Every structure is written in C-alpha cells, then in structure tokens.
Amino acid sequence: MSRENKSKYAILGILSFGPKSGYDIKKKIEASTSNFWSESYGQIYPILKRLVAEGLATQSIEAQVGKPDRHVYQITDNGLKELQQWLIAPVEPQVDRIEILLKLFFGQQMTVADNIRHIEKFHNLQQQLLQKYQAIAEQVKLKEADNPNAAYWLITASYKLHVTQALIHWCEETLTQLRQQTSNSHKIGD
Length: 190
Known about the structure:
mainly alpha; 67% helix; single chain; Arc Repressor Mutant, subunit A; 190 residues; 2 domains
C-alpha cells in the first residue's frame, strides 16, 4: 500500500474517536500521532472527500455565525469495518529515508570534523526528543489515566523512547569511531 492509502486509515482512525472537521483532524494528529505519523491539510481534505464518496464517512454542515460553515465528518459502520480490517492486516516492511545516514554514507567526501559536527547535532536533537517523549508519556499517565486508549498511547510513546535511546547510543558509538579516525590520522602524519 502507498502512504496515501495508509493516510486514509490514519484519518479513519482519528474519526473513530468521534466526529471531526478537517481542522479538528489535523489538530488531533498534531496532538497525538505526529511523532510517528503526520498528515497535512493537503492530504486530509482530499482523503475526506474520498471517504465520503466511498461511503466510509459522512459529511454534515454546521452553520456558524460570522464564519464559514463547518464541515464535520463522521466514520460510518463500513468505514469502521475497513479500519478494523486494515488494523488486523500484517504490517508491511518499510524503508526509512534517514538523511544523517545518507550523509554519512558519503562521509568520505567531507572532513571527519564535518561528520563529527553532523553527529553532535543529531545527538543533541535526540536528547531533546528523549525529553519530549518522556514528557508525552508522563502527560498521558497523568491526564489520560481513565481513557481506555491510554495503554496504547503509552505503547507508542515507549517505542519512540526506545528508538531515541538507541539513537543516542548509536551517536555516542559513532562519535567515538570518528574521533578515533581523527586521532589515527594525526598519528600517521606525525
């Protein structure tokens, strides 16, 4: 499946929490899944139109005073069935596009010092993300303790915590290796 098709399921999943406008969907994604799955308005609105055309969602219009009408979407029984079918299907393997690895793959084209700077910045970013994911997990525990979805939300936060901790460890190993290259090149020139 293409990412666009999976975006359909992300939006159906958000609608499974209750009726929402396109704006509401975007805000819910930003507040919940954006650390591992995001959607733009340019993706959301065409998908909503298709969901309605396919009978997977309905659209109603709420008049607002002094503002444009609000278009609210709600998942249908068929939409919920399709979401559930996708949820039980096996996860497809994916190839990540990781810029830091692409730059390091061609690292011989730059100085070791430049490579070290890239890793140090990436390391600092991972440390910031670790704090962010820890805060998300704590917030879910405090504010969503009674929500039946909280255990699943904590699982996603845990995944990001583990990945980030592994990336921090990888950065530290990589920095050690690169600094050894710098040290060895100085010894050869001596």
